[in-house]
User: What shape does this take?
Amino acid sequence: MKIAVCVKQVPDTWAEKKLSDSDKTLDRASVDGVMNELDEYAVEEALLLTEAHGGEVVAVSMGPDKAEETVRKALQMGADSGVHVLDDSLHGSDAIGTAKTLAAVLADGGYDLIIFGSESTDARMSVVPAMVAEIMGAPQLTFANKVSVDGDTVQIQRITDYGYDEVEASLPAVVSVVEKINEPRYPSFKGIMAAKKKPLDAVGAPDASVGGLPAAWSEVVEFAARPPKAAGVKIEDEGNGAGKIAEYLIEQKFI
Assistant: This one.
């Protein structure tokens, strides 16, 4: 079984994020980049499936030079090889441009499964896995909290508001997994050292016209810094504190 697991480098969750003044895109250079937390579950699930059925895991990421670090982490966790889609023309790509580019890169890889995390923590859109599946003409099995493969068939439990649905499709297919599906492993010292010798190929955009800021379907026209937090209201309790609090809540239309 050959599995591609798509990983993304995102700004550290705890970092103060801002937009670039020049083109109004997310300023990724000013903050530390880390592997999207939800993609760690995708990597782990790919590794578990190949450990159970045999095969190989290829980590695929689209992003600037720094995104190589995220591919390297997937290799340290146990992926066999990596593909870094690196092209300046892709800067500012929206979800549609990203999906089209990834689909083109993945199309000729001969993958039985393509696994994503459920969403990225910098955008929170949850649409790229479904878009990639649609573009590739492959079945999409999204929001899985359990994945199993039997021959040429993949089954998942898809999380819903009322529990889960059982969904089945033929391979090849695209799967996205939720964070409760497993517990991602930490890269071991042995894994870190082994990753240095694993192949990692940098490839350009198959079609520069579908990605990047000029091709984006959405645009940030204007933005402003968040205003500083206003000072709180301090109420001295001199026996009438409850009344003062009630008056304040009424003024703010909370009650």
The longest helix spans residues 37-53. The first strand starts at residue 2 and ends at 6. The CA atoms of residues 76 and 191 lie 5 Å apart. Helices lie at 37-53, 68-77, 95-107, 128-136, 189-195, 241-251.
